[in-house]
User: Fold this.
Amino acid sequence: MRLELIPRSDVSSLQRTLAPLWAILIALLMGGLIVAFLGRSPLAAFKVYFLEPLTDPWALQELAVKATPLIIIATGLVYCFRANLWNIGAEGQLIVGAIFGSIVPLATVGMESTPWVLPVALLLGALGGALYGSIPAFLRVRFGVSEILVSLMLVYVAELTLDYLVRGPWRDPKGFNFPTTPNFESFALLPNLASEGRLHAGIIIALLCAAVTWFVLNRTLFGFGIRVAGEAPRAARFSGFNANRMTIAAFMISGGLAGLAGIVEVTGQIGQLKPAISGGLGFTAIIVAYLGRLHPVGIVFGAFVIALTVYGGEAAQITLKLPLDLTRTFQGILLFCVLAADALTTYKLRIVRGLHA
Amino acid sequence: MNIMVKVAGAAALALGLAGAASAQEKLKIGFIYVGPVGDHGWTYQHDQGRKAIEAAFPGKVETTFIESVPEADSERSIEQLARTGHKLIFTTSFGFMEPTLKVAAKYPNINFEHATGYKRAKNVATYSGKFHEGRYVQGVIAGKMTKTNTIGYVASFPIPEVVAGINAFMLGAQSVNPNVKVKIVWAATWFDPGKEADAAKALLDQGADIITQHTDSPAPLQQAEARGKFAFGQASDMIRFAPKGQLTAIIDDWAPYYVERARVQLEGKWQSQDVWDGFAKGKVKMAPYTNMPDDVKKLAQDTEEAIKSGKFNPFKCPVFDQSGKEVKCEGNGALSDGQILSMNYYVKGIDDKLPK
Assistant:
């Protein structure tokens, strides 16, 4: 006996849109069950985990702060993933973006207010990420090297480069040899949007990225090319799209946005470079991209859902003393459900008895 | 895990039955941990301190912890504690320094305690331990015990605390064995059993017969024991991981300090300060001296006692740097605390280049 997936022919777009919502609902039920097994009230957990963060203005700001880099990176990943290119190295591109972007803010520490520093930092951040993202693309186009391996391994190179910089040449001379750079001046930081709380202008950049990406994918020839390259590569070739150029462009946009996310994170909430500035945002963004079904609007929602599980997980540790492991388990369940819902929307499950098809 | 469930159960009870009123009368104390609590090592020792507070003030305090908080993403976690009624908050890793200061500036009525940092504020105190005192004792033991005159040192990151530890260890070893050599491998991690084990293997292969470590897992210790060599535990007593290999271990005991700070907070007498103490106040302790001859044991105990009573300072002058130049003596017959806290050079005799 075995299971077979049969493609469904009649999937409406409504069904596709509803699939992630079903997934969230089922994940919630499973999470509630685990909480109940731990001897706690699932309703109380639901309240702490989801309702309180969504009704508290401070918490909403924190969700936006957490979602900001995820939205920017994930919208970038869409260009690659839609074209069937596997950029697994957004984490590295983010770090290189943060390094490039920090050059000018670090050079202007101790100076008078200089308004052009921040825009230059953001541009350099995007440029750094784009250049770093072009490496796996170039190697794939020129030598046929797997972009998955190269982009992934370049993450370690980026991490160690940052590590070297903050322990060596960029270390704060007044910092007792601890591995951090000096704090950036306030003019090199993204402005705060609220008087209380930490919401910074990065969220505007993130939403702009999502909007522009929607426009590019749906209303431009380039976006059309990306989609065709992913869905029907032969057709793309016949219709004259240059696959090599497409690969490099997709990777550079993807890397550029990851780099932008890196410098937004540094100028938005960290304010200096440290050995670890990301903590896996570049990998989490892959999840966000798929949670949002590779659609910019979906990604904005997906990023907030992930931010909510992180925030709610902390709240649950504080008020209910629920273990961190539960949060991580729940994140896993959620992703599993989303993928399953996706698969079951596209395919029918059929049990086949006997040995052959 | 048991304790976790118990703590959680008590809290749920407080929330569910007694309501907010009775919870408010208790002093809420929060902890931010950089790693998981686990059952040994840095965060485990801080959690022991948290439990000591609970035990010392039954019914008067309620403690909370958030574990595995990434340093770059910690401001939110710290502020969450501040917003949920915690009046005293311990942030237990160096990387929480800037976020702690930022949150503290927003909540002037809440007191913060930051471990191992150097920036303070009216409501931010700092504290750390003189772990190098324990390193010196280890050095004395290693200098006596080594047959190959080669000692392997698994180091984490070249920050002053680690560098001072290496130097104190070397000075201790040289005090009993002028021919001793220390080989250093930078594992570039605080906790990674695989990397730490590899580092220890490399050192053993190069002829080291004693291993010491400034990383958190018992892996180097286990590697040494597996080859019939000796090593030291780190942060916690790790004897159960290497009953035949552990000579002793440096134990970080935060409990007395945490209980004291909770007490002054309860009495309304909390003040910002910078505390750096070691053997004398019991913040740094040595695990039982095992697997060594009685004379070495006696020597180790005497050294520990001399440091504890203040008769001896591991960094007593003169101290010579790697190039043989004498280091300026800014303290009272020894290097000053400030000099030790910002140490970025090796002492004479260490065969390694400090990564910069």
Remarks:
- The CA atoms of residues 124 and 159 of chain A lie 18 Å apart.
- The interface with chain B takes residues 38-41, 44, 58, 62, 65-66, 163, 167-168, 176-180, 183, 198, 265, 269-272, 274, 276-279, 311, 314-315, 317-324 of chain A (CB under 8 Å).
- The beta strands of chain A are 2-7, 347-352.
